[in-house]
Amino acid sequence: MITMEDIKITSKPMSDTPKSVLMGFPGSGLVGSIALQYMVDQLEFEQIGNMTSKYFPPLVMMNKGVINVPVRFYQKDNLAVIVGDIPVHPMICYEIANGIISWLSQFDLKEIATLAGIVTNEPEKRVFGVATEQDYLQRIQDHSIILPVGTISGIAGSILTECKVQGIPAWGLLAETINAPDPRASAATIEVLNKIFSLNLDVKPLLEQAEEIEAAMHKLSEEVQSAEKAPKKEQLPMYG
Amino acid sequence: MITMEDIKITSKPMSDTPKSVLMGFPGSGLVGSIALQYMVDQLEFEQIGNMTSKYFPPLVMMNKGVINVPVRFYQKDNLAVIVGDIPVHPMICYEIANGIISWLSQFDLKEIATLAGIVTNEPEKRVFGVATEQDYLQRIQDHSIILPVGTISGIAGSILTECKVQGIPAWGLLAETINAPDPRASAATIEVLNKIFSLNLDVKPLLEQAEEIEAAMHKLSEEVQSAEKAPKKEQLPMYG
Amino acid sequence: MITMEDIKITSKPMSDTPKSVLMGFPGSGLVGSIALQYMVDQLEFEQIGNMTSKYFPPLVMMNKGVINVPVRFYQKDNLAVIVGDIPVHPMICYEIANGIISWLSQFDLKEIATLAGIVTNEPEKRVFGVATEQDYLQRIQDHSIILPVGTISGIAGSILTECKVQGIPAWGLLAETINAPDPRASAATIEVLNKIFSLNLDVKPLLEQAEEIEAAMHKLSEEVQSAEKAPKKEQLPMYG
Amino acid sequence: MITMEDIKITSKPMSDTPKSVLMGFPGSGLVGSIALQYMVDQLEFEQIGNMTSKYFPPLVMMNKGVINVPVRFYQKDNLAVIVGDIPVHPMICYEIANGIISWLSQFDLKEIATLAGIVTNEPEKRVFGVATEQDYLQRIQDHSIILPVGTISGIAGSILTECKVQGIPAWGLLAETINAPDPRASAATIEVLNKIFSLNLDVKPLLEQAEEIEAAMHKLSEEVQSAEKAPKKEQLPMYG
Amino acid sequence: MITMEDIKITSKPMSDTPKSVLMGFPGSGLVGSIALQYMVDQLEFEQIGNMTSKYFPPLVMMNKGVINVPVRFYQKDNLAVIVGDIPVHPMICYEIANGIISWLSQFDLKEIATLAGIVTNEPEKRVFGVATEQDYLQRIQDHSIILPVGTISGIAGSILTECKVQGIPAWGLLAETINAPDPRASAATIEVLNKIFSLNLDVKPLLEQAEEIEAAMHKLSEEVQSAEKAPKKEQLPMYG
């Protein structure tokens, strides 16, 4: 167990194979969390550890009656995954990013990658790429659209900044998304990971899940519209 | 006396018998606090200690002129109980959970269980169960409904997370409740504890207390309704 | 000088006689502060020290041009008194209570007593009593009404909690009061102290002060009422 | 350089002559700051040092292109002056007062005096006096009106409290003032200092400055009044 | 790597040539950041390091897909530049200023200069000058207008204060600007730097950028005005 002041990582050490570490925390479209949780479930990664922190809200999720620690560490062969269920507050992104990187630094890392969403409300779900140095853009430029200008905020921004400062190779993917859980953007992200890491991971279940969510939202939207057309009694007290 | 930085536990050590530790703090329906206070009173547990903290609000309750420390430790045979009178603020759940578990860790524990409520406003008062690992679900699955998905927040969530991270067997019960003190949900919880621990604790007094509260609320509700029908002078200034 | 981290007590040590320590801080009706300041003035206690804290607001009171430190320590024979001029914020009650008790613990104490008010708006000014243990209720049960249920908040609650946790005999008096300075409730409290400590302290001046305050408030109330009956120009702009 | 944790005093040591230390920080009417800055400028005090603090707002004032550190230390013969340009937030008065007194304590001090304003909106500008002990009132009672009752808040209150607690002779002057920069009140304060310290400092320039400010405010007031009499178009939309 | 408690500077040491250090952080008109980023890009300064801090918001900017650390250190010959992309919150200006100066103090410095804007909304873009001591005004008085009175707030104010307190020669430029990115004010600042440091840096590209921004804002302004003239349906429900 590694104990930093305010962050507690309880994990088996990572195996000796050099690792590409993929990270996803809840953010726009929950793109990174959905993609990575789907990946570790489908490819049967081994869960090796957890992270808790006094900075996290007191909230725990359940899966068939068994609770999940909010941030989980997984590995399989030359890949490691860190996936979070809870959004990281802007005030603590620096601490969390440094805690994670400090723990990772004891192992043999090839690179760190952050997966996130960028809200464009476009149906197309293009995936943009950024890197900490010009050299690392080569890793992603054939599979994503290099983002010319812009900003990345939140934990992904902090992770990339720390990697750059400490000289750890790092890059990030940003899938076009919406302000709602978006498995379609997660699927687009996995398609890029498939190419980079030759994963051959089927995204059909994610796309089906996306269709279900979209159908439900479409229905909701129609109900809202018809509700808006109906005269509202409470706004017409004279005829009440 | 064990003194951590911001939490102070003043207690006799627990006796040598391995313990199942039941915990209840005020939350939805006050389910856990009411159930456990009722249990320690009826089964005449021994009070062995107290917990105070600079994080607790300066508030003390009285019982026949004698003040109660807001968080109390009790034991009897193979059971220990921690019961709180004051809600734990989300900002300090992590600290309080770690303080309690750190103190408990010096003793021979069998398991930790959290008792709480989940607001459904259903009259039925079903009791749901969760656990930190698949194995511990066996402990509760015959007596409660395993909660397939969902979240647990507050001190119960923090306790379960820490137990999972530290490998301490733990499970939780969540009784269906309402947004008001709910002895009926506490009674349903005790019925489950009766089965798990063969307590044979009579819940009739709790149910009678529930009926009193419900009668009072029903009366209040009728008064509010008749008051709402009466013309309100202050809203009719023209006829004042 | 005893210096704790954030609280500074500058005081001569208390004399060897075992002490009953009476404490009053501003709260409902200012009952405790008024009663104890009156007592130390009339019975000519010796001022032995002061307490300051970074947590106190920067506010100092004057008496004939000479400033008073906001919290003062007095003693005479077997009695000690701690009286405060400034209300203690809920966030710091725990720290202040622990600081005071920690300093007091080096001396030979018989008991600690807190004096405060409880708002009932009754004219009668009954005095209720509470204690940290059943045994200490004997000290007050013939002279006050034992409070069956209820809560005590603020610094008095913190002092009583800490005394209970540390095993220091302690009790408290709560005089019925109003939301305004209330020398009548302070007088009622002193009548109880007269019996417990055989003080024979005359409360007539306090009652006269109470009558003055009540007369002034009565007059103010009449003025407010007649003002409310008069037409208000600013509400009738058409006739302005 | 003396470095306390959060307060940084950079100063030459004070000369050996025992010192009366006069202090003025911005408060009601800016009475103390205006009076003392005028005094050190007119009597050509030597600036010996500065105080900065992480608690101060990031704000610096200029004088003919040269920046001024917000809190400055001056001395001349048997007088020392500490003058501030920035108001001290109530939350940090305790720390700042202790930092200043702690630094001063290494030198041979005769007394500390605080200069401030008290809002009465009276034209007369009387100067009231207070002291930490009865004995020190003698120092000011012939030249000011001893304040019978009342409160002093802010940094002046904290300085006087700390002086009393630490047994440092101290007194304070409070000039009647208004809620605006008030050189007339500063002049009244200097007249008192002239008597106490035989300074013979001419206050005519301050009074002329006061007349300018008063004339400007009178003009502003007339403009506001005539503006208030004019019909306001935006309140009469029907005739717009 | 120099690590202070909450500020992390990762940089190569500066070369031996004594340095004039120019600093610009986002503030009014972004004058300093725009001017210095333009300068280091055009004159091909070498980037030698970065600064991160737990106090900075988790935000990172991109340049052709490569992320920029929010605060960057550059040098070329006898000039060093510190340029920031993120505004520094008033609460942390003291810490950041001290961290930067503490790091710089290990090198051979000639002087420190802060570049910022001052909102006047004048078209002329005059550049004002200030210094920590009378002597250093000579450095800028022929090329800027010495600011007779006024205040400087934010990180520039903190840097100048610390330089004055620590005796480091320092001066600042304040270009007249508006409440929007203002390359024209940055150009005016560079014209002053051209004279002081004989840089011969062409500002035409900045002026062209300014014209583009101004044209865009002019167009926007016209659209807003014509939109304001059009009747707004939602404000005329009776004719809806």
What's the arrangement of secondary structure elements?
Five copies of one chain form a homopentamer.
Chain A: E1 2-3, E2 7-11, E3 19-24, H1 31-42, E4 46-53, E5 59-63, E6 66-68, E7 71-76, E8 79-84, H2 93-104, E9 109-119, E10 127-131, E11 145-146, E12 149-153, H3 155-166, E13 170-177, H4 183-197, H5 204-229
Helix pairs in contact in A: 1-4, 2-3, 4-5
Question: In summary, what is this structure?
Answer:
Chain A has 240 residues and is of the alpha/beta class.
The N- and C-terminal alpha carbons of chain A lie at a distance of 66 Å
SSE order of chain A? EEEHEEEEEHEEEEHEHH
Quaternary structure: homopentamer
- Give me the Rg of chain A, rounded: 20 Å
The total count of strands of chain A amounts to 13
Features:
two-stranded antiparallel sheet, 32% helix, 5 helices, ten-stranded mixed β-sheet, globular, 240 residues, homopentamer, alpha/beta
Descriptive report:
5 copies of one chain form a homopentamer. Chain A has 240 residues and is of the alpha/beta class. In chain A, 32% of the residues lie in helices and 30% in strands. Chain A has 5 helices and 13 strands. In chain A, the strands form 2 sheets. In chain A, strands 1-2-4-7-8-3-9-13-10-11 form a 10-stranded mixed beta sheet, with helices on both faces. In chain A, strands 5-6 form a two-stranded antiparallel ribbon. In chain A, strand 5 and strand 6 form a beta hairpin. In chain A, helix 2 packs across helix 3. The longest helix of chain A has 26 residues. The first copy, chain A, is globular and about 60 Å long. The C terminus of chain A is likely disordered. Chains in contact: A-B, A-E, B-C, C-D, D-E. Strand 5 of chain C pairs antiparallel with strand 12 of chain D.
